[in-house]
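Colleagues,

For the teaching module next term, I've prepared a clean inverse folding example: a structure given as tokens, and then the sequence designed for it. I'd like students to try predicting residues themselves before seeing the answer, so please don't circulate the second half yet.
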């Protein structure tokens, strides 16, 4: 299995990178955060990957969800590149990185190509 889709996200692995796309949904709370991390870890089968996280459809997570993602969301992740097309989401993600301090290299991109270029340095 190299593909999972649930009500919150679509995930797949290709050429050493895990692609994670948020789907539209209303409330991003701790239950959502736990579900998406659980499914991601199931997909990864104990193997670490750099992650391209498409946040273009992301809703604002609660404080508890953000903190969970900063810690538990870093498990088996070599690096994360957040890809967005919105200045608001870019600022929101900069705030998340500054305040919640993910445990792995994390960057924000408005270009998918630039995000993938960043992540390729983490592919073994």
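(Answer key — instructors only)
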């Amino acid at each position: 299995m190299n593909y999972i889709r649930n009500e919150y996200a679509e995930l797949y692995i290709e050429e050493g990178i895990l692609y994670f796309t948020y789907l539209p949904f209303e409330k991003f709370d701790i239950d959502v955060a736990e579900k998406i991390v659980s499914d991601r870890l199931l997909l990864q089968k104990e193997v670490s990957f750099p992650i391209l996280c498409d946040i273009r459809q992301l809703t604002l997570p609660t404080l508890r969800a953000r903190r969970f993602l900063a810690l538990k969301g870093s498990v088996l992740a070599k690096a994360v590149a957040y890809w967005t097309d919105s200045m608001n989401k870019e600022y929101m993600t900069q705030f998340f990185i500054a305040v919640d301090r993910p445990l792995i290299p994390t960057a924000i991109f408005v270009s998918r190509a630039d995000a993938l270029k960043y992540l390729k340095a983490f592919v073994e």
